Write a sequence for this structure.
């Protein structure tokens, strides 16, 4: 696992909060974290992941985005569904879906098949992703 990049998270959180026109105190209140905790996030300090996860909804990010930023990924914006108040909709990047499908197939193959090389397992998972895309499933 890569090292958590707290300064990177601080830049993203600060920029998004300012874009939304939120004061630190209000953002912390909406997230349900202490003012000092929000300030620590924005200063690049270490904060428990449970508190980092609370910033997603305040910033209009899909669940898990702040942790993703901490790990080097980009945040995913979400919006409230018109037809279902209280339900957020977000678009996952295609690369995330492809990677998740490949990982699941590779792990299942490793667990159930014997005698396949790493290259054969990768080719199997790549083919499954291509077939799923062709079928319109991903």
């Amino acid at each position: 696992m890569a090292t958590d990049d707290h300064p990177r998270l601080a830049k993203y959180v600060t920029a998004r909060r300012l874009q939304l026109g939120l004061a630190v105190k209000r953002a912390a209140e909406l997230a349900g974290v202490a003012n000092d905790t929000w300030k620590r996030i924005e200063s690049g300090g270490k904060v428990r992941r449970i508190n980092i996860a609370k910033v997603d909804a305040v910033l209009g990010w899909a669940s898990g985005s702040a942790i993703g930023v901490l790990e080097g990924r980009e945040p995913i914006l979400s919006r409230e569904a018109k037809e279902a108040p209280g339900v957020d909709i977000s678009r996952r990047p295609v690369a995330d879906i492809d990677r998740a499908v490949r990982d699941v197939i590779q792990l299942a193959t490793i667990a159930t098949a014997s005698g396949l090389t790493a290259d054969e397992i990768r080719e199997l998972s790549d083919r499954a992703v291509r077939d799923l895309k062709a079928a319109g499933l991903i």
Observations:
- The first strand starts at residue 78 and ends at 80.
- Helices lie at 6-20, 24-31, 35-42, 49-52, 55-59, 65-70, 94-112, 118-134.
